[in-house]
Amino acid sequence: MSNLMNTYLQLPVTFARGEGVWLWDETGKRYLDALAGVAVCGLGHCHPKLVAALCEQAGTLIHTSNLYHIGRQEQLASRLAALSGMDNAFFCNSGAEANEAAIKLARLYGHGRNIDLPTIIVMEKSFHGRTMATLTASGNRKVQAGFEPLLTGFARVPYNDLEAVTQVAVHNKNVVAILVEPYQGEGGVNVPQASYLQGLRHLCDQNGWLLMLDEVQCGIGRSGKWFAFQHSGIMPDVITLAKGLGSGVPIGACLAKGTAAEVFKPGNHASTFGGNPLVCAAALTTLQVIEEEDLLRNAMEVGDFMRSMFKAQLAGLPDVRQIRGQGLMIGIELSKPCGELVKEALKRGLLINVTSDKVVRLLPPLVMQRSEAEQVVDTLSALVKEFLMA
Ligand code: PMP
């Protein structure tokens, strides 16, 4: 019997080592990682510059109270502000915590405008985390079931539907913000329609709402730009980040701009470990390596290459509904549930994921090269064809 709480449906492999896009299990078998720890390892596994930066920082200072070690955090906040156009940052330890900060920020913002019951518009099929506020915000009954009572203060609309948001604005005067993933990850790699984010920005401007983007999965280079919203030309009020920011070292961030950046005051919010010197070193090195190795361009090019290869190999099949995504965030939607593909892929030395029951999701490291990408596409396409014919 395991002493671990029974929260994960474990897969029959334990990895012992990683390097770049490769992982090795305890028996020495090698796997190609097209999942990157679910979007965490943009630099690939154990990038030497990341390892060196962590070792150096670990031997210098790992942690003190947030009242004393603001220096490293300021460096990181300033770098993120320059890359995103935001004004400031709050650091925490995960995506859920970054979204908690955004939700609390929106509620404070609402109370500041004399709205007693601030309401945040959220999307169907969204995923924002597993804490009570973030699972309430998520549009997925599976993560909510059994945890009732859920929180109040959320209004849900379909993703990619501007009219539904407009209707909420007409009927609900308590709305203070919209929280949306620019590209939905867990919900099936759903891509925003042209002008969707611009439309949301416009509605926020008209109504005095904050536009809050959850870039936990699609941010930090995953989409081929630093941030996914940068494909749309708009500027949000709040951005949440985690996953790829620390390359596997737990860090989350809530960035804010303008009025939103003025909302929190000392004493409003805190996190013991949030943004300690060790995780800031990991994040600063991650951003530095993405730039030095031109990984945004690589993500864009290799992602386009993979989608076009998948289209060439699979698009004609009647049970392949759609091949979509942006950069190295790739979804292949089939017409039937395909969870069993994950174990089959593992047997063939490939890590993939299935989300929303019918969507094969790939989130390869941003360092993936064309030759490795070709291997991923060939192995997976063969597997999908066998699965659909069985
Ligand atoms: N937001 C999004 C868009 C996510 O994909 C995830 C994780 N899958 C989260 C939030 C939650 O992040 P964490 O597991 O770090 O709390």
From TrEMBL:
Pathway: Amino-acid biosynthesis; L-arginine biosynthesis; N(2)-acetyl-L-ornithine from L-glutamate: step 4/4. Pyridoxal 5'-phosphate binds at G95, A96, F127, D214, E215, V216, Q217, T272. This is Acetylornithine aminotransferase. Homodimer. It comes from Nitrosospira multiformis. Binds 1 pyridoxal phosphate per subunit. The gene is argD. The keyword Transferase applies. May also have succinyldiaminopimelate aminotransferase activity, thus carrying out the corresponding step in lysine biosynthesis. The keyword Cell division does not apply. Keywords: Amino-acid biosynthesis, Aminotransferase, Arginine biosynthesis, Cytoplasm, Pyridoxal phosphate, Transferase. It catalyses: N(2)-acetyl-L-ornithine + 2-oxoglutarate = N-acetyl-L-glutamate 5-semialdehyde + L-glutamate. Pfam families: Aminotran_3. It is found in: Cytoplasm. Its cofactor is pyridoxal 5'-phosphate. GO terms for molecular function: transaminase activity. Gene3D superfamilies: Aspartate Aminotransferase, domain 1 (3.90.1150.10), Type I PLP-dependent aspartate aminotransferase-like (Major domain) (3.40.640.10).
